[in-house]
């Protein structure tokens, strides 16, 4: 197997099938409009925020909803593929043979802003998830101790944007209440 960064650039845009032979080396391999994005494993502060948020959501999720990690969201043509820090979807997909979620199946995607490359979550993935049609995208920013909730995706981006600090609650994808001071502690 050849490392994807050492093999020649494909004669076409990168596609999901090109990622099937990437090494299990701790890096995250994603694609935006045919361009490869490679990011390292997150550092402990990122992981801690992610862990606390996921646990808080899992405790409130009904049994028919999965709050998971490491499952990507794939555009139908294979030229955009993102692996969110957290993805929420229907439990009826568990045990199926899907290799990635279609965007309509992702009820919520969450990214924790990486201190080493904040533009990845704030710009690239924000645009990417909107153009994929992901219904709701949360950008969790530990630096500002806030969550940016983006809804109503369109080709130009998300149409609704709300910042949350201290606490947040909602009814979709399931009823939840979050004390953000505990998430960012």
Record the SSE blueprint.
Layout: E1 28-32, E2 35-39, H1 44-60, E3 65-68, E4 73-74, E5 81-82, E6 86-90, E7 108-112, H2 118-132, E8 136-141, E9 146-154, E10 157-164, E11 167-170, E12 176-179, H3 180-183
Parallel strand pairs: 7-8
Antiparallel strand pairs: 1-2, 3-6, 4-5, 6-7, 8-9, 9-10, 11-12
Explain the overall architecture:
The protein has 185 residues and is of the alpha+beta class. The protein has a domain at 42-67 and 83-183: tt1808, chain A, CATH 3.90.1570. It has helices at residues 44-60, 118-132, 180-183, and strands at 28-32, 35-39, 65-68, 73-74, 81-82, 86-90, 108-112, 136-141, 146-154, 157-164, 167-170, 176-179. A six-stranded mixed β-sheet has the order 3-6-7-8-9-10. The chain has a two-stranded antiparallel sheet with strand order 1-2. Strand 9 (146-154) and strand 10 form a beta hairpin. The longest helix is centred in the first third of the chain and has 17 residues, at 44-60. The relative contact order is 0.14. The model has no long low-confidence stretch (mean pLDDT 92).
Short description:
The protein has 185 residues and is an alpha+beta fold. The chain has helices at 44-60, 118-132, 180-183, and strands at 28-32, 35-39, 65-68, 73-74, 81-82, 86-90, 108-112, 136-141, 146-154, 157-164, 167-170, 176-179.
């Amino acid at each position: 197997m050849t490392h994807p960064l050492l093999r020649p650039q494909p004669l076409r845009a990168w596609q999901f099938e090109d990622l099937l032979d990437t090494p299990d080396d701790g890096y995250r391999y994603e694609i935006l409009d045919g361009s490869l994005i490679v990011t390292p494993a997150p550092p402990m502060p990122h992981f801690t925020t992610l862990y606390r948020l996921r646990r808080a959501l899992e405790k409130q999720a009904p049994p028919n909803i999965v709050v998971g990690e490491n499952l990507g969201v794939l555009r139908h043509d294979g030229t955009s593929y993102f692996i969110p820090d957290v993805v929420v979807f229907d439990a009826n997909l568990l045990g199926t043979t899907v290799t990635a979620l279609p965007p309509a199946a992702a009820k919520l995607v969450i990214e924790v802003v990486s201190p080493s490359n904040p533009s990845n979550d704030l710009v690239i993935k924000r645009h990417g998830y909107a153009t994929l049609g992901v219904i709701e995208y949360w950008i969790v920013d530990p630096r500002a101790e806030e969550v940016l909730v983006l809804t109503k995706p369109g080709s130009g981006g998300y149409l609704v944007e709300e910042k949350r600090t201290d606490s947040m609650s909602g009814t979709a994808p399931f009823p939840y209440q979050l004390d953000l001071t505990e998430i960012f502690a």
